């Protein structure tokens, strides 16, 4: 490990001396730039001004550490003086474990077994057709390919109406997808995940819904889009597979083509936008008016109700005379004798 050293400008009035005296010499670990001070604290100075004492102590120990670094072998690299640090003695604790090395890919294992050494390639290559240097990757390479392949020859056994440029673009996208699939398989292999070639990803984790979707997709992978495939008894169609399998999609109801259908629809939309007045239902309005008149007439013909008082008049009941115990009046017209 190297460390760049710079000499400070020393001023006797502004800076302190680089010589620091300690009763007990410090323990140094220059590999980790560590200095350990075992001297006792000055309790009187520490209690008097704690911040100033700790600042001076840190300055002196740092100066001693820098003095030890200047004692190491140095060398000049360009305009800087570099000190070679020794191997560290102190083991510093780690919060996490040391990361494990990345597992080798399938190609790296093959190249290691065969002894294939990777050679460093140049970033540019000379193109004889374009007569210029072309990068091996990047957007400039794509521009160069377009300039180079501005015209393509149609093969003898190919359809003359087929677009060869579109065919090349599709082939390139398939190669990119294949490489991405292989990369994901390498990751799954490094993590000990079983990835089948076709079908459901994992039979232990997959649910019945996933299995049904896989069956539906497999049936619709035929030339007839699953039209002539036989169905099992009590077999249900998987939900959400209509976007994947055209055979499982439902037919949409399209408007009729004959006549001025589009013109009528546009006129109806314009009519609803311009005619903002609400439509009047005459029958409903007449029925409501007749109902209101009937309610008013019935309320006028009804006689006024007479309020009945809760208290009875004094004429209906009379107090008994003396102690005879007789009571006169009342609805019954007679009285009772109390004995």
Automatic annotation (TrEMBL):
It comes from the Eukaryota. GO terms for cellular component: nucleolus; preribosome, large subunit precursor. It holds the Pfam family RRS1. This is Ribosome biogenesis regulatory protein. Keywords: Nucleus, Ribosome biogenesis. InterPro entries: Ribosom_reg. Involved in ribosomal large subunit assembly. GO terms for biological process: endonucleolytic cleavage in ITS1 to separate SSU-rRNA from 5.8S rRNA and LSU-rRNA from tricistronic rRNA transcript (SSU-rRNA, 5.8S rRNA, LSU-rRNA); ribosomal large subunit biogenesis. It is found in: Nucleus. Residues 234-254, 289-339 are annotated as: Disordered. Belongs to the RRS1 family. The keyword NAD does not apply.
């Amino acid at each position: 490990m190297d460390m760049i050293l710079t000499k400070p400008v020393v001023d006797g009035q502004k800076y302190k001396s680089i010589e620091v005296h300690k009763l007990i010499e410090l323990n140094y670990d220059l590999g980790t730039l560590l200095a350990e001070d075992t001297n006792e604290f000055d309790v009187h100075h520490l209690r008097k001004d704690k911040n100033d004492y700790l600042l001076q102590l840190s300055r002196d120990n740092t100066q001693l550490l820098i003095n030890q670094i200047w004692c190491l072998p140095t060398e000049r690299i360009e305009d800087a003086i570099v000190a070679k640090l020794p191997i560290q003695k102190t083991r510093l604790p780690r919060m996490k474990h040391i990361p494990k090395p990345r597992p080798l890919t399938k190609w790296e294992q093959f190249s290691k077994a065969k002894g294939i050494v990777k050679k460093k390639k140049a970033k540019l290559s000379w193109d004889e057709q374009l007569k210029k240097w072309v990068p091996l990757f990047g957007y400039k390479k794509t521009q160069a390919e377009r300039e180079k392949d501005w015209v393509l020859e149609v093969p003898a056994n190919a359809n003359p109406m087929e677009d060869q440029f579109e065919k090349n673009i599709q082939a390139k996208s398939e190669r990119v997808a294949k490489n991405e699939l292989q990369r994901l398989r390498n990751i799954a292999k490094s993590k000990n995940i079983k990835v089948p070639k076709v079908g459901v990803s994992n039979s232990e984790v997959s649910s019945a819904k996933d299995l049904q979707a896989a069956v539906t997709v497999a049936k619709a992978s035929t030339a007839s889009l699953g039209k002539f495939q036989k169905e099992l008894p009590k077999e249900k169609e998987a939900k959400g597979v209509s976007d994947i399998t055209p055979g499982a999609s439902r037919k949409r109801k399209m408007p009729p083509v004959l006549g001025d259908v589009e013109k009528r629809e546009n006129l109806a939309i314009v009519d609803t936008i311009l005619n903002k007045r609400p439509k009047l239902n005459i029958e409903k309005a007449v029925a409501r008016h007749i109902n209101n008149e009937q309610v008013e007439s019935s309320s006028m013909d009804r006689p006024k109700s007479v309020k009945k008082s809760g208290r009875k008049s004094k004429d209906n009941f009379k107090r008994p005379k003396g102690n005879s115990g007789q009571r006169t009046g009342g609805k019954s017209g007679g009285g009772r004798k109390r004995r």
